[in-house]
């Protein structure tokens, strides 16, 4: 790996993350969702902290089918034949008491009867004439799930700001919580800008036209994260038209995300549209490829996120930055992205003054080790390089050359995660 120190006018990714993160104001509003409407619950952000109302499970219960006895009686005489006094099935607790020297036949999930403290699997027992002999040694608590094993009374089922996962839903159901207060959905507006940009719904798009990939892709990225946005409006490269579109979006939405026209070229008008609308600029230009011209501004707590036009940049910026900010607006604490170092199987040269994020696949090298390979063709417009990628490989600022075998941070996409 070759390195070079170089100062830059561009703001590094982690600083950008922090600058915006510190300024984000949480959107108010919450609504109740019910366990009977799982799709309305999963992926939302909890607006309350709920604690276990009681121990879960409520009672000690049996973990295997077998025989329950008191350990001290077995230790006093390991050859003892214990008379089977009761049969205790799941859902049918035994009202009586099992004395020392007696046994109960028990089934998985049954409430542990009173008087016993260990359970032996029936394959470890001999049964003869209604009496049971244990064939192995035991210990107190053997094959017993103690009350509160899952959660003790008062422990947290779900915390304010948690994303509601299927595991959380399982836990809420286990605790008998049928309703959860979640943050109201963010109102997100999308604009795709550029004279060349046309919609896939437009039948007469000519060869000079680029069909809007960013709008629908952003809608998809948002939907996969539990957000929603109406179709992007397409706005030409015209300051007035863009400023008007910004103004309308800011009236209605909590967040405006644009793509295209984010640079400082003659036909790049997002900076001007921010200015015309009194949007305070939080930063402009990030030390990252793809994504360099990105800008973020804020007005009355509303966020304006101007992404570059290239679809790979849109995707990468959304994943690395935008998704986290949107979740934060709903009260989820900012969390560092998951990075795992892996050796690379490719060579690459780059500028020192920015980090580069390449689309990568994890492959197995000749020695059986996981190794990162570049996925598809390079280039910020190459949507096909995103398809089938396992994640992004980061080549940090300061590195100018990467060789086979160098270890670099890998950020997995969820498609290949669990
Ligand atoms: P810009 O950031 O406006 O300079 O655009 C950079 C590149 O991205 C140009 O080649 C545009 O044609 C392309 N582009 C801009 N907007 C979109 C879009 N919505 N969908 C697909 N490509 C786009
Ligand atoms: Mg443009």
Structural class: alpha+beta
Strand order of the largest sheet: 8-5-7-6-10-9
Q: What's the shape?
A: elongated
Bound molecules: adenosine monophosphate, magnesium ion
Largest sheet properties: 6 strands, mixed
Task: Explain this structure.
With 418 residues, the chain is α+β, with helices and mostly antiparallel strands. The chain is 19% helix and 29% strand. It has a six-stranded mixed β-sheet. Strands 17-14-18-22-21-19 form a six-stranded mixed β-sheet, with helices on both faces. Strands 20, 23, 25, 26, 27 and 29 form a six-stranded mixed β-sheet that branches. It is elongated, with a radius of gyration of 30 Å. Magnesium ion binds next to loops.
SSE order and pairing:
Layout: E1 2-3, H1 13-23, E2 30-34, H2 38-41, E3 50-51, E4 61-62, E5 66-69, H3 71-76, E6 81-88, E7 103-106, E8 118-121, E9 125-128, E10 131-134, E11 144-145, E12 156-158, H4 166-174, E13 179-183, E14 188-193, E15 197-198, E16 210-211, H5 214-224, E17 233-235, H6 239-252, E18 255-259, H7 270-276, E19 280-284, E20 288-289, E21 295-299, E22 302-307, H8 311-329, E23 340-343, E24 348-349, E25 355-364, E26 370-374, E27 391-395, E28 399-402, E29 407-412
Parallel strand pairs: 6-7, 14-17, 14-18, 15-16, 18-22, 20-25
Antiparallel strand pairs: 1-28, 2-13, 3-12, 4-11, 5-7, 5-8, 6-10, 9-10, 19-21, 21-22, 23-29, 24-28, 25-26, 25-27, 27-29
Helix pairs in contact: 5-8, 6-7
This protein binds adenosine monophosphate (AMP) and magnesium ion.
Concise structural overview:
With 418 residues, the protein is of the alpha+beta class.
């Amino acid at each position: 790996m070759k390195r070079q120190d170089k100062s830059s006018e561009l703001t590094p990714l982690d600083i950008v993350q922090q600058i915006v993160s510190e300024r984000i104001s949480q959107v108010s509003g919450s609504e109740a969702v019910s366990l009977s409407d799982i799709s309305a619950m999963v992926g939302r952000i909890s607006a309350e902290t709920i604690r276990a109302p009681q121990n879960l499970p409520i009672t000690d219960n049996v973990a295997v089918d077998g025989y329950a006895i008191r350990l001290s009686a077995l230790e006093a005489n390991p050859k003892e034949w214990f008379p089977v006094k009761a049969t205790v099935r799941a859902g049918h607790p035994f009202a009586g008491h099992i004395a020392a020297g007696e046994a109960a036949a028990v089934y998985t999930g049954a409430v542990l009867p009173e008087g016993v403290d260990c359970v032996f699997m029936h394959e470890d027992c001999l049964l003869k004439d209604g009496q049971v002999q244990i064939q192995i040694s035991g210990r107190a608590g053997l094959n017993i799930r103690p009350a509160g094993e899952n959660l003790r009374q008062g422990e947290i089922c779900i915390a304010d700001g948690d994303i509601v996962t299927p595991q959380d839903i399982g836990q809420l159901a286990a605790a008998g919580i049928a309703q959860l207060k979640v943050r109201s959905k963010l109102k997100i507006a999308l604009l795709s800008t550029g004279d060349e940009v046309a919609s896939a719904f437009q039948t007469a798009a000519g060869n000079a036209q680029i069909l809007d990939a960013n709008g629908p892709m952003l809608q998809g990225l948002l939907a996969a994260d539990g957000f929603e946005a109406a179709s992007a409006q397409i706005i030409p490269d015209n300051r007035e038209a863009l400023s008007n579109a910004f103004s309308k979006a800011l009236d209605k939405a909590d967040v405006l995300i644009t793509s295209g026209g984010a640079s400082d070229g003659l036909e790049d008008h997002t900076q001007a549209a921010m200015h015309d609308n009194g949007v305070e600029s939080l930063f402009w230009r990030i030390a990252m490829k793809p994504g360099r011209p990105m800008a973020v501004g804020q007005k009355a707590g509303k966020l304006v996120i101007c992404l570059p036009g290239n679809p790979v940049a849109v995707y990468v910026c959304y994943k690395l930055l935008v998704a986290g900010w949107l979740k934060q607006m709903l009260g989820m604490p900012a969390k560092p992205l998951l990075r795992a170092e892996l050796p690379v199987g490719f060579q690459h040269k780059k500028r020192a003054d920015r980090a580069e994020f390449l689309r990568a696949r994890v492959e197995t090298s000749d020695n059986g080790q996981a190794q990162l390979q570049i996925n598809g063709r390079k280039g910020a417009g190459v949507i096909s390089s995103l398809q089938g990628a396992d994640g992004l490989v980061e080549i940090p600022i300061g590195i100018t050359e990467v060789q086979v075998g160098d270890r670099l941070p890998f950020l997995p996409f969820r498609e290949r995660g669990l």
